[in-house]
Amino acid sequence: MNARSLKSLYRSLTLRTRITVAFVLLMAGAMGFIVLVELVDYDEVRASVVSMSQDREVRRLQVALAQGVQPDLPEGSQLFDPHTVPQVLRRYGLGYHGEAAPNEWHLRVFESNGQRYYLLQHGDHYAYLEHLINAFAALVILTCVFCAFWIGRRTSAHVIAPITRLADAVQNKHKPFPFQDARDEIGVLARAFAQHSDELEQFLQREQCFAGDASHELRTPLAIIGGAAETLQHQLPADSRLLASAERIVRTTQEMQRQLTCLLLLSRDPRTVPRSNLLLRPVIEECMARCVPWLAGKPVRLTLDAAQDEQLLTNDVLAQSVIWNLLRNACQYTEEGEVRVELRGTTLRVADTGPGLPSSIDAQQFQRFVTSARQSGEGLGLSIVQRVVEHLGWQMTVETSVRGCCFTLQMRPAAADTLTAS
User: Fold this and answer.
1) pLDDT tens digits along 188-215
2) Of 87, 90, 112, 387, which residue is most buried, by most CB within 10 angstroms?
3) What gap in Å lies between CA 286 and CA 82, rounded to an integer?
């Protein structure tokens, strides 16, 4: 079986089987290496090292003795000739002799110039071998760990590679997604991603169609209603009882047009929403003027503390929608006291002395169409505010109690490279 056949067979396995095979191969490799190490006889290795060391020492001594020079001996070694050798060593013949620990010693009997010599070495002379053997054991352990790590990395890379490739395709929206024809878990995941992506595209297409239809079908009737109401407003006498109704129709129609524009902008990609430098104080003052009818007959002060030249790179319609909805809610539900607006740089605070948010509205995440004691659309208004804030990349925090609410907006301008000037 060639490499291509093995690769094809591996790809046909399920992800669970691949992981199982990877662990089996990892364990087999580690155990095989350990078995090979266990075959090494440490005593034989030690004896071999001692023999080679003594061979070198004997050759050096033979050269020195042949020249008639008294050789230097390392610490822990003794050299005897036939006259000085102890009686207990005379019984040993030529070659190597020794005794293991605890009374370890090593004897090498050799001849030079026709005489027999005895090289006796104490066990301390080869104490370094214990350190070498311990170091070798540590090296074996480290080698096992490294081999296990290497095998694990290689096998996991083969297992994870399809997932990584699929994730990159999904993130970068490269279609068609890979591995849709695979029969393993990756194939199931790829087909699920593809189906979900198709459903999202269909949903976005329906949303775009709805936005286009709403823009075309609603703007014209609203413009007609607004024009007719303005005409009626100017034609009515100043003392007519219908004048207030006409003014209310005009205000409501204008508000509907602004909300329609806001909702259409919310249906677009945030990166394509046009932005321009906006003076904030005039926008706030306009919203405050529109709130006057909500304060009629109520002992409520509406105050503003803002610099004249504060600017922000944003969309004017969406920014005005946020400020208007917050101010309208504050003025509508504050029966007495104060509604205060403060602007410091790009931080806007709208505080009131009303009853606070109802318990059915989450102060951290506003939900649409919540039911509360006030059936006046407050939940829907705050839901729009939350959507606009997220669309613009701002942050909003809320502090609420029975003594009032305080909305704080951090209006950070978006990156310039994602904006298009209006």
Assistant:
1) 888 898 888 888 888 878 877 776 776 6
2) 387
3) 122
What mean pLDDT comes out for the span 286-314? 90
Q: Which of 332, 322, 324 is nearest to 384 (CA)?
A: 322
- Mean pLDDT over 15-38 rounds to 73
Residue 62, judged by CB atoms within 10 A of its CB (0-12, 13-18, 19+), counts as: middle
C-beta of residue 392 within 8 angstroms of C-beta of residue 272:
no
Q: How far apart are CA 123 and CA 326, in angstroms?
A: 91
- SS3 readout for 12-64: HCCHHHHHHHHHHHHHHHHHHHHHHHHCCCHHHHHHHHHHHHHHHHHHHHHHH
Structure-block tokens of residue 379:
């939940």
Instruction: State the DSSP H helix or E strand holding residue 214, giving kind and residue range, or none if neither.
Output: helix 185-235
Report cis status (omega within 30 of 0) of the bond before 282: no
| H-state helical runs in 236-266 | 243-266
- Tell me if the bond preceding 162 is cis, omega within 30° of 0: no
**Per-residue burial over 281-300, b = 16 or more CB atoms within 10 Å of its CB, e = otherwise:** bebbeebbebbeebbeeeeb
- Is the predicted pLDDT of residue 415 greater than 60, yes or no? no
pLDDT digits (tens, 9 = 90+) for 128-157: 666 776 777 788 778 877 877 787 777 777
Which residues lie below 8 Å from residue 347, measured CB to CB, with a gap of 6+? Answer: 408, 409, 410, 411
pTM score, whole prediction: 0.51
Dihedral of the alpha carbons of 55, 57, 59, 62, in degrees to the nearest 10: -130
Sign of CA dihedral 60, 62, 63, 64: positive
Q: Which residue has the higher pLDDT, 34 or 368?
A: 34
